[in-house]
Amino acid sequence: MEFQGDAVEQPLPRLNWRAMTAADLDAVADIAVIGFPDHFEGRDCFGNRLRLNASGCFVLADADDRPRGYLVAYPWRAEAAPALNVLIEAIPADASVMYLHDLALHPDVRGGGWTRTMVERLADQARDAGWPALALVAVNDAAPFWERRGFAVVESPALTAKLASYGPDARYMVRDLTA
Predict the structure, then answer these.
(1) What Rg value do the Cα atoms of the chain yield, rounded?
(2) What is the pLDDT of residues 23-79, one digit of tens each?
(3) Is the CB of residue 138 less than 8 Å from the CB of residue 167?
(4) Are the C-beta atoms of 77 and 27 separated by less than 8 Å?
(5) 54 near 67, Cβ under 8 Å?
(6) Could you tell me if 132 and 178 are in contact, meaning their C-beta atoms sit under 8 angstroms apart?
(7) At what angle do helices 25-35 and 43-52 cross, to 10 degrees?
């Protein structure tokens, strides 16, 4: 029988941010394809980042412990971004910021405020480790999303050239952690 009348509000799923493990990589890669269809990065790329900086890799898991989102961050050079879907041999010795490589949620769990708590957790963790800033490349017209989380666009001709492979809407953004 079809319900006719007011829509019944569905409860928000029970979700929890936890450390990413190698067992999560298939799900992370699947979520990445949904969130960033024009910026492909495969399972190997996420595994590479997990091996390089496990303390900056998290998944948003549901009640059955299935990943429904993820965040990947690692130390990197200021005003630079690694090429898409390229394996990194090591964290650069001259890294000067915590680079938020990726944050994505499955469409079924978007809109619940899950990203805000994790971005703040990452900012606290980076600040406590002595990093002066978080940096990222916003794609898919996401600059306003990141501005609401304390990031500001950094414009320069050199950055514009470096971000060409990320698409015309790519913006390099920084959040100062020293204030």
Answers:
(1) 17
(2) 999 999 999 999 998 888 999 999 999 999 999 999 999 999 999 999 999 999 999
(3) no
(4) no
(5) no
(6) yes
(7) 120
